[in-house]
């Protein structure tokens, strides 16, 4: 378990040079950056837990697929490291130590930490952390720094796509809820239905709905007289929404049965669908436009890196059918 924590906290990016590779076969060279068999094993083990079947098994086909994905990831990361080296980008002083200390803090003793690191050595781990940070710096420089969405861009998108920014119908309602356990027998079901029908008659006869809910509901809304609050169309159960669509504000429904039990609904407010104001839509539009820009810039950058830094596979990597993708 401790070694798996190490995988999650510190993902090996890619080697900047060839330190400590005597124990690990170099299986690929991307520009000037080597990828070792040790790194491929680490990256594969990082991905593997998300590909285990319900029964806890992994087929040979799935293993090959995961290995190919791991190699894809390492190649893409190596492209970024090459880019960082070409611009002489560097990690801020102290950043590596800060992450290393965070990893060490997960272990109760120094010996436990050393055993978790095993043959990688602490220096190898430091190098891995530095490469991971450098990869992020490279991407920020090449992509993040170029993303720019103006207020006019946002306004234009809103004006041209207003149909995307409608607030759906909203309701506010109160209910009296009679819970029916899934294991209830027919006699109990009938008894609870009769109780709900009796409460429905009392509510429709003009008895105070708040009090009826307060003293009879089987859920927490009883403390506020059955008030469910405001909710969007699609948030309540289908049975309740079907009933509310036919109701006017102030109406009290017949008994409605859901998978949880019986409900008597009082509709207290209906807010019809309406156009979302520009200021309300602005944050979502900005996020969307920035994402679209970032994705396009990243893809263009990656395609250029593929052309600039050739990939040479050796040994076991030559048998892996991989096609580098964005990550």
Describe this structure in words.
The chain folds into 2 domains: 2-148 and 287-319, Triger factor/SurA peptide-binding fold; 166-275, Roll (Chitinase A, domain 3). Helix content is 50%, strand content 14%. The chain has helices spanning 2-9, 37-47, 60-86, 95-104, 110-117, 121-142, 151-160, 186-204, 209-216, 238-245, 278-308, and strands at 26-30, 33-36, 166-167, 170-179, 227-232, 256-257, 261-271, 274-275, 311-313. The strands form 3 sheets. Strands 5-4-7-6 form a 4-stranded antiparallel sheet, with helices on both faces. It has a 3-stranded antiparallel sheet with strand order 2-1-9. A two-stranded antiparallel ribbon has the order 3-8. A hairpin with a 3-residue loop joins strand 6 and strand 7 (261-271). Helix 3 packs across helix 6 (121-142) and helix 4 packs across helix 6.
């Amino acid at each position: 378990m401790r070694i798996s924590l190490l995988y999650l906290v510190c993902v090996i990016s890619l080697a900047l040079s060839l330190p400590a590779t005597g124990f690990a076969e170099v299986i690929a060279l991307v520009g000037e950056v080597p990828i070792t068999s040790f790194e491929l094993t680490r990256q594969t083990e990082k991905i593997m837990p998300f590909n285990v079947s319900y029964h806890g098994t992994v087929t040979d086909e799935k293993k090959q697929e995961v290995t190919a994905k791991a190699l894809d990831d390492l190649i893409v990361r190596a492209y970024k490291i090459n880019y960082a080296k070409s611009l002489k980008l560097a990690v801020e002083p102290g950043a590596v130590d800060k992450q290393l200390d965070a990893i060490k803090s997960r272990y109760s003793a120094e010996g436990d930490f050393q055993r978790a690191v095993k043959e990688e050595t602490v220096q190898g781990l430091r190098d891995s952390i530095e490469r991971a940070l450098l990869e992020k710096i490279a991407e920020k420089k090449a992509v993040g720094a170029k993303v720019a969405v103006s207020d006019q861009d946002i306004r234009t998108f809103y004006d041209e796509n207003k149909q995307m920014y409608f607030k759906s119908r909203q309701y506010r309602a109160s209910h009296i809820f009679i819970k029916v356990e899934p294991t209830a027998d027919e006699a109990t079901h009938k008894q609870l239905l009769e109780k709900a029908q009796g409460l429905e008659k009392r509510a429709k006869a003009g008895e105070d709905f708040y009090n009826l809910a307060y003293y009879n509901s089987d859920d927490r809304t009883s403390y506020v007289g059955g008030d469910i609050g405001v909710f969007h169309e699609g948030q309540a159960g289908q049975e309740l929404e079907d009933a509310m669509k036919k109701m006017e504000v102030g109406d009290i429904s017949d008994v409605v049965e859901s998978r949880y039990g019986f409900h008597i609904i009082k509709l207290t407010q209906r807010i019809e669908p309406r156009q979302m104001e520009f200021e309300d839509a602005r944050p979502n539009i900005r996020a969307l436009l920035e994402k679209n820009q970032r994705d396009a810039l990243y893809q263009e950058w990656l395609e250029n890196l593929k052309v600039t830094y050739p990939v040479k596979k050796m040994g076991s990597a030559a048998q892996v059918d991989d096609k580098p993708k964005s990550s």
